[in-house]
Design goal:
- With 635 residues, the chain is an alpha/beta fold.
- Helix content is 35%, strand content 13%.
- An eight-stranded mixed beta sheet has the order 3-2-1-4-5-6-9-10, with helices on both faces. It has a six-stranded mixed beta sheet with strand order 13-12-14-15-11-16, covered by helices on one side.
- Strand 14 and strand 15 form a beta hairpin.
- Helix 2 runs parallel beside helix 3, helix 7 crosses helix 15 and helix 13 crosses helix 14.
- The longest helix is centred in the middle third of the chain and has 20 residues.
- The radius of gyration is 27 Å and the shape is globular.
Length: 635
């Protein structure tokens, strides 16, 4: 290990590495690489936390896991694998959610640095708040396809993760897509994968069928009998007992793309197979399979399918989806069979049959899992921006994360500026580019500001207290167990104590005299987070959202007040929500934080360590040694 060898690190850093306690949050693509890098660097006191279990699709990029680990805890298996690099390291694994009340501010205070390798915004927001309150430096990292970034979050020095709004995420675990969808987008992703399996460029990770390698599936088959054999009609067994899938595309071709057979396979037989995995449905509502003949006893009618497909803004019934499915399947299969050699169709949301196929399949699957169905128009807008995880990007990002952690331990903050990894080289032949400065904390941030406050535009005549708690406080503002009181009267609206304010849940906000101008005081004891909410009532139209969170009061000004005089325009350009206060107390007018869609990385002078990493990682990707990250190669 690097820190165990004199001369690899400066003596001071060597001691810091040996004595530091590090928390890794997330044991997925980036987390596996981070843990490996930490152990190889010589860190010996590490804790890692992750709630997920290992899915077969993880194995192409999460290299601490192997096939025999499928179904097991990511955190625990990552620990076991990492200990093979250094058996003397002390690694504690937590198979749990980081948002659990077992991991409060005092838990985070134990660590010298926290490295976040999470894949969802709610958990990132929570870790951000924990680290701010514990005053522990946070190394936040993330990837999106070939792009990656690493940034430091430190109270009083940098912007926090929530200083500006983030773009909506489009990344989902494979097991969620195949086995346990809970949102419309999960079903849309599944439908796109099905299109590719039948007609497009198929990828093994995009298999839409229940996974036979899953331990729960194996258990189900052991108890299964004849039904399991029927479900596995497109699978064969080798003499060694392994299950081998027959190509779904070939099976569909052998069936002559019969709409009824394909429909029953994907929406009846595969669903029945999932139902046999009883462990999946102990805390979830079980799916309800559908049968082709039950939906369309007289078969599909082409004219009906064409007519329904034209209704872009209507939410189709399941029967209508079946008609559209049959028509789209007929058109796509005819086009596919005309192709020569290994040519495939490419899914395009603007291609009628392809879009109809995905919309119909997504809605049928949504119906099966009791998920809200969407119109074709809505599905079209959601179906893009599904970005795969790239192993080399994870390795690069993890390497930079650990290098930044080394700088944090030495308090070399100037060496901790955000770094961006990009697919293409910039004008200076770099694909790793660092910011020139730290974006200062946003004085309007409702998390890290000295007196956090927001204005909430909300229809108090239509929102009930329960919806206010669940949709606004928990989902939108990412609280865990909020308490809410009215500032003027001190009356309790919402209590985190069970049953104390249950009588308020079905009441409208206006019934409790929470109307325009009222200030609510919100307190999440678990997160050590307090927030003032200024209520701004509006009468929402039929299709309007019932609430909108506004962190900048200037957005509430009437339009006539926003019309400035010509001589005020230049000054006004420097005033708005993007205005920030720098660490020295002076105003700064940068365009936003490193995570903002608006920001652009600014080049700085070359750093020898960084350039060495660029060269080594470039070679790594070229020769496909994906498992070696930047830090390992340098050491």
């Amino acid at each position: 290990m690097a820190a165990a060898i004199d001369g690899v690190f400066p003596a001071t850093l060597q001691e810091l590495v040996k004595k530091s306690k590090v928390l890794v949050v997330g044991a997925g693509g980036i987390g596996c690489e981070v843990l490996k890098n930490l152990v190889l660097s010589g860190f010996t006191d590490i804790e890692i936390i992750d709630l997920d279990t290992i899915d077969l699709s993880n194995l192409n990029r999460q290299f601490l896991f192997h096939r025999e680990h499928v179904g097991k805890s990511k955190a625990r298996v990552a620990r076991e694998s990492a200990l093979s690099f250094n058996p003397d390291a002390k690694i504690t694994a937590h198979h749990d959610s980081v948002t659990s009340t077992d991991y409060g501010v005092n838990f985070f205070k134990k660590f010298h640095v926290v490295l976040s390798a999470l894949d969802n915004r709610a958990a990132r927001n929570h870790v951000n708040r924990m680290c701010l309150n514990a005053d522990v430096p946070l190394i936040e990292s993330g990837t999106s396809g070939y792009n990656g970034q690493v940034e430091l979050i430190k109270r009083g020095l940098t912007q926090c993760y929530e200083c500006t709004p983030k773009e909506k995420q489009r990344s989902f675990p494979g097991c969620t897509i195949r086995n346990t969808p809970s949102e419309p987008i999960h079903c849309i992703v599944w439908a796109k994968h099905l299109f590719n399996q039948l007609f497009g460029e198929s990828v093994e990770d995009e298999d839409i069928s229940p996974d036979a390698a899953d331990p729960e599936a194996a258990e189900a088959k052991a108890d299964g009998g004849g039904d399991a054999a029927a479900v596995d009609e497109n699978k064969e067994s080798e003499s060694n007992g392994n299950v081998v899938r027959i190509n779904t595309r070939q099976w569909a071709k052998d069936c002559a793309y019969d709409a009824g057979k394909l429909f029953n396979k994907f929406f009846n037989e595969d669903i029945n197979y999932l139902l046999r995995m009883s462990n999946l449905w102990k805390s979830r509502k079980a799916p309800v399979p559908v049968q082709w003949d039950a939906l369309l006893p007289d078969g599909a009618k082409e004219a009906a399918g064409v007519e329904f497909a034209r209704q872009h803004h209507k939410v189709w019934t399941v029967e209508e989806c079946a008609h559209v499915f049959a028509n789209a399947l007929k058109e796509l299969s005819a086009a596919f069979l005309k192709l020569e050699g290994d040519d495939t169709l490419v899914w395009d949301k603007d291609e009628q049959a392809a879009m109809d196929f995905v919309a119909a399949c997504a809605n049928v699957r949504s119906h099966i899992f009791d998920i809200e169905r969407k119109s074709r128009f809505e599905i079209k807008s959601m179906a893009g921006n599904i970005i795969p995880a790239i192993a080399t990007t994870n390795a690069i990002t993890a390497g930079i994360s650990v290098m930044r952690a080394l700088s944090v331990l030495q308090s070399k903050w100037e060496q901790c500026k955000a770094v961006y990894a990009r697919l293409r080289l910039n004008g200076r032949n770099q694909f790793l580019v660092a910011d020139a400065f730290f974006p200062a904390p946003n004085p309007n941030c409702y998390v890290c500001a000295s007196d956090p406050a927001i204005t909430l535009r909300i229809d108090t005549k239509r929102i009930q207290v329960k919806a206010f708690r669940d949709e606004v406080l928990i989902k939108a503002l990412n609280m865990v167990n909020p308490d809410v009181t009215v500032e003027a009267t001190g009356s309790i609206v919402i209590s985190s104590e069970d049953g104390e304010t249950e009588c308020n849940e079905q009441k409208l906000l206006c019934d409790l005299n929470i109307v325009d101008g009222i200030i609510l005081k919100c307190d999440d004891f678990f997160q050590s987070y307090e927030l003032s909410i200024i209520i701004s009532h509006f009468d929402a139209e039929r299709d309007d959202a019932l609430f909108e969170v506004i962190a900048d009061k200037s957005q509430l000004q009437p339009k006539q007040q926003q019309q400035e005089k010509p001589e005020d325009k230049e000054e006004a350009k420097e005033e708005p929500s993007s205005r920030k206060r720098a660490a020295n107390g002076k105003d700064s007018t940068d365009d936003g934080p490193s995570t903002s869609k608006r920001s652009r990385p600014t080049e700085i002078e070359d750093n020898d360590d960084m350039m060495m990493m660029i060269v080594l990682l470039w070679r790594t990707s070229r020769i496909k040694l994906i498992r070696l990250s930047a830090l390992q190669r340098i050491n």
